[in-house]
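=== Structural record ===
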Amino acid sequence: MKKSKLVLRLVVLGLYGPALLILLSGDAGWIEGWAYSGFALAYTVIGRLALFARNPGLAEERAAGLGRADVEPWDRKIVPWIGFILPTLTMIAAGLDRRLGGAPHFPVWVRASSALPMVAGALLGLWAALKNPFFSSVVRLQPDRGQVVVASGPYRVIRHPGYAGAVAFNLFTPPALGSSWAMIPAGIIVALTVLRTRLEDRMLRERLVGYRDYAARTRYRLVPGLW
């Protein structure tokens, strides 16, 4: 894929959620909304460009997504929900919550203190992706790409740091935006991500050479000392 086409695609992808959020809020002066939108756009464009520069094969791998024949059947059901439907609903809920009100809102100190773990979750996910050349957008074994166990960077501490980052990001995005309604779709994303973690971990134990030994050394999947 040409770099100009890739950049355009990433900009469109990065603008989709923030545009929904700001337009539905009807509030051009919404500080939290604009802060989130700026971060989301920068993270999508700059983060993905850095990722694909480090691991060139990932651009094609992630773009293929559900078009690949060997995607795990259960992941075909999960990916549309956590990759598009529920994130879209989160932005819609937060935007309309800002416009219409009526739901209990988070106080200023909660909104401010939620921004840091939200950003930290996103950056943890990016770190995991940069360290893992097999960081596909779908769950599949990748013998065609010479998949091996990755045990460096955040993978030394937990087995699925990308999912851990996604959980933190989605859990803290609604309070960072001050929206209690957005907690509903975001909470479902978190639940499905935990389920996906369990299913992928089981698949890797059964089918990826060396993963059982890695799992014995790195005990926890998402949260050190807990699970």
